[in-house]
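Title: [Solved] Ferric iron reductase protein FhuF 3D structure

Original question kept below for reference.
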Amino acid sequence: MYEGWTKEEVEELKKFRLIDRIPASAAFHLSDFHTSRHVRERIATTGGSGRILERQAAASILVKRLSFLAVIYFHSMTAFNRRPILDAEKIYVAEHEKEGLRLLDFYFDQPSMMPYDETIDRSIWLKEGWEYLFHEWLMPVFDVLKEEVRISEYILWENTAVYLYWLYETVLEDRPQALQDFEELIHPGAFQPNGMKGINPFNKFYFPKSLNGDGKEVRMRKTCCLSYLSDEKGTRCQTCPLFCHNRNLERGESLG
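Solution (posted by the thread starter after getting help):
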């Protein structure tokens, strides 16, 4: 059990693949995903051992799975006013299979907590958390994937952004602090990671929802996550920009 979160808070975070004990089966450390050798092995085991596009698809899916770390982190900041601090080698990553999908669970080994102090500017506290999460945990994975499979950094950032939009617009929608924290996140100057040319990725990919080719209100992606390449039927996501483009053309609509 975790000392930094209450039992009820841990139960809430379990919805996002946090686990409350060290995995009994073989597990990796998040720091393993910061190395080329381990990333190559993970990509190969998920069907990404063939042509470059298949490897890029496997890399994209890996980032989707790891993005639940960001969901756990942001949820804790907004809902509990605490952000966990621990090195990547103290985060256990365990695989499990569900309905044919390889999913990841996470165990935090004795994290310390940085609580929000109401005497300081909340935006500063939030930005410090974002910098820590991405620079220490996720951006090293992005860097390895860009080097190994030459995948666009925009795809990786949008994969993460989609989960955070969902978190704030759906899961945390009724939390008092959610709207303020979300508006802070998507502000153009809030977060400008290396490699994004002064662009906040969470602002870049955020825009009003619209109707897709099936008439559903969605926020269509600006990049294709390539997951259709790992699907036997080649099925595209409902928010895929290529899917929406093709369906609109079928209906005789111009995308202008």
